[in-house]
Amino acid sequence: MFANPEVWQFPYGRAFDREETRVFLDMQMAEWGECGFGCWVAVHRAERRIIGYLGLSVPMFLPEILPAVEVGWRFDPGYWGQGLATEGARAALREGFTTLGLEEITSVPQADNPPSARVCERLAMTLDRVVSIPANDRRGELEALLSTHSRRLASQQLKQESANMGLAVRLAEGSGFADLGERFGPLLQGCVHRFEPGSGLGRSIRPHGHLRP
Prior knowledge:
This protein is α+β, with helices and mostly antiparallel strands. It has one domain (18-169): Aminopeptidase. It has helices at residues 18-35, 84-99, 114-122, 151-161, 177-184, 186-192, and strands spanning 39-44, 49-57, 70-75, 104-107, 126-133, 142-150, 169-173, 203-207, 211-212. Helix 2 packs across helix 4 and helix 5 (177-184) packs antiparallel against helix 6.
């Protein structure tokens, strides 16, 4: 999936090579170890195939807003426009506000990426301000839209939406990433082996929709 230029159009405007993909996966696993949360593999429930990733992370690329937690998503272009990013991001927000007890979660889509900005709108996130993401050795400076969501607002929305949006979330001990690793082969197995018993990472969520984190 990462070899598709559209997947990494924002922020790099090109595809990832194998080494960049390896480094990215290593960083994701390290974040789980350091923070106790991170991104999930997104598996289409009906097709039983990996179609992207989504979840929570620390936006180290934007020091001015730290400490903060960001909700983000990245999907195979063949699954864009189906509401999957919104569905998965809602599940991630609930995990952040309930399991992790966060008071606020941000999202920082690029200003020239309207589809992701619209996901933020559908999540009822509030646009705070336009920010500049500093350049690094792989890309130039970027303009982005800083949006926020609060636990208080999320609690009100969940009470209204959970009955009719198919997004009720069950927390299940020991039923997440190891299960995915057994089903989808060596790459995921290499990741999930880091989720050892007692590490605090044996909890996953399963939205009742198209996706299975």
